[in-house]
Model the fold of this input.
Amino acid sequence: MRYPAFLPQNGTIGFVAPSFGCNISPYREAFDNALRLLGERGYRSELGPNCYAGEGVGISNTPEKCGRELTEYYLRRENDCLISCGGGELMCEILDFVDFDRLSQAAPKWYMGYSDNTNFTFLLPTLTDTASVYGPCAAAFGMEPWHPSLEDALGLLTVKKLSVSGYPLWEPESQKDEAHPLAPYHVTRPRLLRRFPDRDVSFSGRLLGGCMDCLVTLLGTRYDRVAEFAGRYREDGILWFLESCDLNPFAIRRAMWQMEHAGWFSHVKGFLIGRPGCFGQEMMGLDAYQAVLAVASRLQVPVIMDVDLGHLPPMMPLITGSLAEVSVKGNDISIHMSLV
Done:
């Protein structure tokens, strides 16, 4: 696994928009404030041409322009790392215009984002053997005050910390809108981990995963080299972290079935499942827990659910591709990532 150099003090953060940009409220105001706050911490900013664009369908610009921006800014020496402006809907369409061959030969660089950015955070390790960060997008850094999860994310990029833990409260409903673009996470509900089997457990493996909505779109395409990746790291095993945005319980169950039958869960050592967008929803007797466990329980590995990951913040930032040790004790979870 290739690990990038960390963001140095007074370094330059590059911002790109391979999915949605920050052209409308409240994202524009939040992004502008993020640039100001990061600047006050000594970091310079380099903005790609699509950061404020809104000409695309489900993404900031045309697939060609988004793919070209992502490739160019990953290869540029003028920035030290990249943070995506935001998530979106159709980042998969830019992949034909991303030059993965050049990226695999270039010096590795940290890229951070989540949701639709799974299309890059997942493919960097599986296609180019380069680690990435599944973590918050740029506009989140505009909130005031920062949630501890944002300090954790910046800490990963600057190698101030390689361990993360769960947060005591999470946000069931955001208060950020056009009138309140800088609102912090509205965390009101206590975290409650679901453990299967229900006992304290420690396990390890290579972190791999992201948003299931995106993963099942990649599955079976020419970008799907998961079986090869899992085989390459079979001695470590794979620790899957998964979360979903728009999938209902039946869609989650179908996605788990599809990934299993595609061989993605070969050498699996455990599952970390984030709170899904359908949290609390039940359809014809099926909820999100059974949607996952229908497949995961057959694999006889630990399954930890309602973890701080994904679309119901806060989220623990994770280094995709790193060798991680997970410890779950009661309602507490800690993850230590080793760059080996």
User: Anything to note?
Assistant: The chain has a mean pLDDT of 97. The chain has ten helices and 18 strands.
